[in-house]
Structure to design on (208 residues):
């Protein structure tokens, strides 16, 4: 079992802290191609067969329940799995009696980094340039998330990360059971600044 820290030792990756990552921007991932390493992928999957890049903004998430059925994801489930690294994420809660929504910040009780389950692919534009992109897999909400939203990202435990990245595993009977709601008692949630609503704001002030 490898820690998130150990992945950083296999290949250098220079990044700065991010507090408000939006679709079509780069996110830190753990990948396994020739080896297991940290890398940057653009958030919003563009399948290799896509005619243009615009589809990426509509494929930021993939439902766990239909991965094995949809052509966009079935091949990737067997051969191009990744982890998306985070130490928190946002979801918006409806306010009673109002059309407004409050941004909520969700993280682990110990505030440690964690990983979402993801899929990635390589797309080549008409000029022949390659672009690597990814999508985050979602599942039913756990007890913590349910009052906020009916879906949540799939968060993998350290043991599950190893299975998810293992290039020798292609069996849906092993992979799909990993894509379940995370233990609610290990997580916490709190309201944060509405500045999160504007992706131009990206500083620690958002979660202060």
């Amino acid at each position: 079992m490898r820690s998130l820290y150990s992945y950083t030792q296999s290949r250098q990756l220079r990044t700065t802290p991010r507090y408000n990552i939006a679709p079509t921007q780069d996110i830190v991932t753990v990948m396994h191609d020739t080896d297991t390493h940290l890398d940057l992928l653009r958030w919003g999957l563009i399948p290799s067969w896509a005619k243009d890049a615009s589809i990426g903004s509509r494929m930021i998430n993939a439902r766990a329940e239909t991965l094995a059925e949809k052509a966009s994801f079935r091949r990737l489930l067997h051969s191009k799995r990744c982890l998306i690294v985070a130490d928190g994420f946002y979801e918006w809660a409806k306010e009673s009696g109002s059309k407004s929504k409050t941004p909520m910040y969700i993280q682990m009780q110990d505030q440690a980094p964690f990983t979402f389950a993801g899929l990635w692919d390589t797309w080549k534009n008409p000029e022949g340039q390659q672009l690597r992109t990814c999508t985050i897999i979602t599942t039913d909400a756990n007890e913590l998330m349910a009052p906020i939203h009916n879906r949540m990202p799939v968060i993998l435990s350290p043991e599950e990360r190893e299975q998810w990245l293992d290039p020798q595993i292609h069996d849906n009977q092993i992979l799909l059971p990993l894509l379940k709601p995370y233990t609610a008692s290990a997580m916490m949630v709190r309201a944060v600044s509405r500045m999160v609503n504007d992706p131009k704001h990206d500083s620690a002030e958002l979660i202060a």
